[in-house]
Amino acid sequence: MLDVIKYSYAEILNTLWLLPDWLTASVLVIGGVLVALIFNAVIVHAIRNTLGVRHPKTRSLLTRSKGPLRLALIVLALSLVVRVAPIGDRAATVFGNILNVAFIALLGWTALIAAQIGSQIYLRRFSLDAEDNLLARKHVTQVGILKSAADTLIVIMTVAAAMMSFEQVRQYGVSLFASAGVAGLAIGIAARPLLANLIAGVQIAVAQPIRLDDVVFLEGEYGTIEEITTTYVVIKLWDWRRMVVPLSYFIEKPFQNWTRETSALIGSVFLYVDYTVPVEKLREKLMEVARASPLWDGRVVVLQVSDATKDHTVELRALLSARSAPAAWDLRCEVREKLIAYLQEEYPGALPRQRQEFVSRNEPDQAPLSPHTMVSHHRAG
Q1: What is the pLDDT of residue 60?
Q2: Where in the numbering of this chain does the Mechanosensitive ion channel MscS domain appear (predicted)?
Q3: Which among 104, 85, 105 has a CA at the least distance from the CA of 95?
C-alpha cells in the first residue's frame, strides 16, 4: 500500500515538473491553500467535538479564532510551497515579502483578539445592570479606554512593521523623517489633537473623572456618559439627543459629575411664597409626601427658609435625597407639584401676592374727603 502511494506521489511530481513553471507554481500554490483550508476545518471540527460549543463563551472564542487560525495555516502552507515551487529569485523575493507582511498581520490580528478576550474575561465579574454599579462602571470604563489605546498601538506597530519589511518604503520613511524637518513638524502639529486625546484617555482611565453611565452636567446640558472612545465621549442628554465632546475636554475644563463617588443625590426644590406661609405645616406636608414616594431613599428631607426677598416673597428650599439622578429629578418634580397643590387647597393666601396702595386726593371744587387707604390684593401669576 505504501509503495502504491509513493509511486502515485512520484507520478504526480513528475507530471508537475513536465508542466510550464508558471502553471506548476500556480498548482502548488492553489494546492497549498486548499490543504491549509482542509486542515483548518479538521482542527475546528476536532476542537468543537472536544470542548463543545454549547457554552456561549466557548462558541465566541472559536468564532474569533477561526480567522487567525486559517490565516496562520495558509501562511505556513505557502511558505513551504515557495521553497519547492519552480519560480525565479525575483518572484521568490516578492512571495517572501508578501508572506512576511501576512505573518506580521497575523501577529497583530492575534494581539487584537487576545486584548479583546482578555478584557472580556476581566470584566466578566462586573455587571452594569446592578443597582449600585459604581465599581462595575469604574472597571468597565478603565478597561474600555485602555483596550482602545492598546488596539491603536497594536495597529500602528503592525503597520510600521509591515512597512519596514520593504526596503523601498523603509528607506523612504527614514529619509523623510531625517531630512524633511518641516514636514515632520507639520505632521506633529496635525497629529497634536489626536495625541492630546490619546494622552487624555490614559489620564481618564487612571484618574477616572468620568465613567460609563455617569451623570454629568456641562455646557448647560444634563445627560449620562453613553460611550467613551480614544478621541471623544458621547453623552446621552435627557431628551435623547447626543452631545459629542472631545476626550481632552474632561481634562482641561470644569464640569459637574453627579455620580462621581455614589449614584445617590440630593435634589432641591425652591418655592416662592408669601410671608404668611405656615412653614411648619408645609414642613409636615413635605415629610408626608417624601414618605409616600417610592423615589425617596429615606435619608434626607429638609425644608428651610433660605431667603426673604425684596418683592414681598419668601424663598423656601426643600432638600430630598434619592438613589440616582433620574430618581432625584422625578422626586423633585413630584414634591414641587404636591406642595403647590397643598398651598392652593389649604392656604391660598400663602401664595405669592403683589400689594398696591391707592390714596385718594382732594379735588379743588369739592369738600375735603376723609383720608382713607384702599389696598388691593392681586395674586401673582
Answers
A1: 64
A2: 194-260
A3: 85
pLDDT for res 120: 81
DSSP annotation of 371 reads P
The angle, 0 to 180 degrees and rounded to 10, between the axes of the packed helices 134-164 and 192-207 is 140
C-alpha dihedral (362, 368, 369, 370), degrees to nearest 10? 120
pLDDT of the residue at 178: 44
Examine residue 294 and state whether it is found in any structural domain, yes or no: yes
Contact by Cβ (8 Å): 223, 211: no
Cell of 309: 426677598
Residue identified by cell 393666601 is 349
What are the 10-residue block averages of pLDDT along the chain, 381 residues in total? Answer: 46 53 65 75 70 59 73 76 67 72 83 84 74 70 78 79 69 44 44 65 79 87 86 88 89 86 84 91 94 92 88 88 87 94 91 72 50 38 35
Residue with cell 518641516: 182
Which CATH number goes with the domain that contains 270?
Answer: 3.30.70.100
**Which cell numbers hold the place of 182?**
518641516
Q: Do 250 and 272 have their domain in common?
A: no
pLDDT value, residue 293: 93
Three-state DSSP class for 307?
A: strand
Find the Cα–Cα–Cα–Cα dihedral 145, 261, 135, 226, rounded to 10°: -50
Residue whose C-alpha cell reads 404668611 in the numeric block: 276
- Which class for 321: exposed (0-12), middle (13-18), buried (19 or more C-beta within 10 A)? buried
Classify residue 168 as left (phi > 0), alpha (psi -120 to 50) or beta. Answer: alpha
Query: Of 206, 99, 107, nearest to 149 (Cα)?
Result: 206
Is residue 227 a part of any domain in this protein?
yes
Q: Are 108 and 72 in contact (CB under 8 A)?
A: no
